[in-house]
Write a structure and sequence with these properties.
single chain; Rossmann fold; six-stranded parallel beta sheet; four-stranded antiparallel beta sheet; 13 helices
């Protein structure tokens, strides 16, 4: 008997901040990005995780996955699917149920829905590295994950929290409540924005520095703060805490670096790779917190009642996917059975019409009756094949009808 639970041909390589350092993780992300436009691969890349998902068809080894660094988790089949569902639900995040990962998943999928530059439709089975389509299995898993993620967010109890809240949790033991404290946010992207708005909500005086003065001014305005100078010639603004969220090194002059080391202010670096060089990070000592440090922060505990609800929903999503995989696997058998029946029907009609002299309307009536007869006889087997999660009926049909 075949396996009662067909496994999807899915492989996931998971490099998380809990096990793979930032610089190593980002290098793996760069390598994974080189195949991320293949229809059989999709890459999820955030400050805490690099996750490469690949649809692996039997007998096709043309998709070369990058070498994974030490600490990378390799998951296959339903283990990979379950992990994706956990990610979408926010159960694998530092902040359980945080919204940012769901936004990132949605953008990850929507990026693959952009039409090819030529305007021509992309064939799903295409192996062209620049193709923008997506393998049906990856599409299905991500759509199920997004649906699951949206539903679980509706169960949230209390106000939403983000990684920025965890960052402020790390500085308040040093600064005390940040009401009236000066907090410098370096950057103007999504994470920097979260930090600035969280600081404003907590009552801090927010300063914003960014390579784009216009973006710094816009974010400072939204956070009821003020923009400050950025760059290797800029002085270090006096602050009670520094939060870095940029995609490059923070360009500090020697004077600004000296001032940073001389201050007592904590530094939370949410950048990956880090915004500060190794020497400065080591010199800051315990005052420095990296994005990897935050990833190792103990997760919030999910209430038992809510956890059981999460698990039931994920079980339902898994069963949905198993049924879909089973139906896709059954398509060749359905087509073969249908073709076999139609061929036999046509042969018998030809034999009958050669023996009898019939009017055209009589031939049409007999042909229509034969089609209804065959369709009626095959209806139940066809439905059973489509809904069979085990694959046993596929094998039985092929044996019984010599397909």
């Amino acid at each position: 008997m075949t396996d009662q639970h067909p496994e999807p041909g899915l492989v996931a390589l998971i490099a998380h901040a809990r096990a793979v350092p930032s610089e190593t993780r980002e290098a793996f992300g760069d390598a994974a990005a080189r195949i991320a436009h293949d229809p059989r691969a999709i890459l999820l890349r955030t400050c805490h995780r690099i996750e490469l998902y690949a649809a692996v068809d039997p007998g096709d080894d043309s998709l070369r996955l990058p070498d994974a660094p030490e600490g990378t988790l390799r998951l296959e089949g339903m283990d990979a699917v379950r992990h994706m569902f956990n990610v979408a639900a926010g159960l694998d995040s530092v902040v359980v149920g945080e919204d940012q990962i769901l936004h990132q998943l949605r953008e990850c999928l929507s990026d693959r829905h952009v039409p090819a530059a030529s305007g021509c439709p992309v064939e799903i089975g295409s192996h062209a590295p620049t193709a923008m389509g997506l393998h049906p299995l990856l599409e299905r898993v991500f759509q199920l994950a997004l649906h699951l993620g949206r539903e679980t967010r509706s169960w949230r109890e209390g106000p939403p929290r983000s990684l920025a809240d965890v960052a402020f949790d790390h500085v308040t033991p040093v600064t005390g409540p940040v009401i009236g404290r000066r907090v410098l946010v370096v950057g103007a992207g999504r994470m920097a924005r979260l930090c600035a708005l969280t600081g404003d909500r907590l009552g801090a005086n927010v300063l914003v520095a960014n390579r784009s003065a216009d973006r710094a001014a816009a974010l400072a305005h939204d956070a009821n703060g003020e923009p400050v100078a950025f760059g290797p010639a800029a002085p270090l603004p006096a602050a009670d805490a520094y939060m870095l969220a940029i995609s490059a090194r923070w360009p500090l002059s020697p004077e600004a670096r000296t001032a940073l080391l001389a201050s007592a202010a904590p530094v939370v670096d949410l950048s990956s790779p880090p915004a500060l060089d190794r020497e400065t990070r080591e010199a800051l000592g315990a005052r420095y917190t990296s994005v990897d440090d935050l990833a190792r922060h103990p997760q919030e505990e999910l209430k038992q009642r809510l956890r059981k609800r999460f698990e039931r929903l994920m079980d339902d999503a898994e069963q949905n996917l198993r049924s879909w995989v089973g139906a896709r696997d059954a398509v060749p058998a359905i087509q073969a059975l249908s073709s076999h029946a139609e061929a036999r029907r046509s042969e018998e009609l030809d034999r009958l019409f050669r023996r009898l002299e019939l009017e055209d309307h009589e031939r049409d009536a007999i042909a229509q009756m034969s089609r209804r007869l065959v369709a009626g006889l095959l209806h139940v087997p066809m439905v059973a094949l489509r809904d069979d999660p085990t694959g046993d009926l596929d094998e039985a049909v092929r044996t019984l009808f010599a397909l």
